[in-house]
Design brief:
single chain, 319 residues, alpha/beta, 5-stranded mixed beta sheet, globular
Length: 319
């Protein structure tokens, strides 16, 4: 049994295959067993609609979770920002490995930085969150930009810039890093400019709740700080009753890396996609040592944001 290959369920995209391959190598080292990738097509991969239209929540996840429940795969790897905030009782997030760079990046023509883009620059993104914050930043800094909704994989999105259809596109640093394509980035966007999606840059390794031995083995890959941070971010998202495609940004991190008594700062933002109205707040507390404490941190900040009118900025709220 020890030599029998573990089956890892993954989406078919280049990025999903790259990040699943990295997890597969790590699981092989921990378990001493080979890991084979099982490619699964999700609704989000086949639909040509914009994510905001199809709801975003779970569209890249449901087929993988169904394969887990049916026992067709032993575990699955997700981009954490794609996961719905409600966790099914029969599945468990066995590991959340160390997070990659959570920032968003620009890939622009002529190696331009965001602030050097020409007046009327066309910037492509499939994310209402990015649209809201890009437009808000442009409004407050006297920049003239036009955000355009796009879909597709990394090659498709960067292709819009190469073909001259767009002046720039916004992507996640983590995805380009895992694909070995950071050299194509022309600007890293500070989290002070754009807060990433809750969980951005982190992966989730999920398996059936009744696989105790596998859960223990996968748990070797878990990073407690990353787990605490993304739990707080996702608790904020859940308390806002917002889905993965809502214009919500959140990021938890150390307040000061030089501190001995470390504190976590959680920041959240909600805005209309035109950038005209924004609610942006932060809170600070001790680094949560339990799931419940991390959840409390996120819920508390969400309550403050709702008190300042965040609900009215999100359009249709998640069901």
């Amino acid at each position: 049994m020890k030599d029998k290959a573990l089956r890892l369920g993954t989406r078919r995209s280049k990025l999903a295959m790259a990040q699943s391959g990295q997890v597969a190598d790590a699981v092989s080292q921990v378990t001493g067993r080979p890991v084979e990738l099982v490619e699964i097509t999700t609704y989000g991969d086949t639909s040509r609609e914009h994510l905001a239209q199809i709801g975003g929540t779970g569209v890249f996840v449901t087929a993988l979770r169904e394969a887990l429940v049916r026992g067709e795969v032993d575990f699955a790897v997700h981009s954490l920002k794609d996961l719905p905030t409600a966790q099914p009782a029969d599945l468990v997030l066995a590991a959340i490995p160390v997070r990659e760079d959570p920032r968003d990046v620009i890939v622009a023509r002529d190696a331009l930085k965001f602030t050097d883009l020409p007046r009327g620059a066309r910037i492509g993104t499939g994310s209402p969150r990015r649209m809201a914050q890009l437009n808000a930043y442009a409004r407050s800094h006297g920049l003239d930009i036009e955000t355009r909704p796009i879909r597709g994989n990394v090659d498709t999105r960067i292709g819009y810039v190469r073909d001259g259809e767009l002046d720039a596109v916004v992507l996640a640093a983590a995805g380009l890093s895992r694909l070995g394509r950071l050299d194509e980035v022309t600007d890293f966007l500070s989290v002070d400019t754009i807060l990433p999606a809750p969980g951005q840059g982190a992966l989730a390794v999920e398996c059936a709740a009744d696989r105790a031995e596998l859960i223990a083995a996968l748990g070797e890959l878990d990073d407690p700080f990353t787990r605490a941070a993304v739990t707080a971010e996702r608790a904020l998202l859940a308390a806002l009753e917002a889905g993965c495609s809502a214009p919500v940004g959140a990021l938890a991190g150390l307040l000061d890396a030089g501190q001995t008594d470390k504190e976590m700062r959680l920041r959240g933002v909600v805005g209309t996609t035109d950038g005209a109205s924004m609610v942006q707040l932060s809170t600070t507390g001790p680094v949560p040592q339990t799931h419940d404490r991390a959840t409390e941190l996120g819920r508390a900040l969400a309550a403050e944001m709702l008190a300042q009118g965040a609900a009215g900025l999100m359009g249709e709220r998640a069901q």
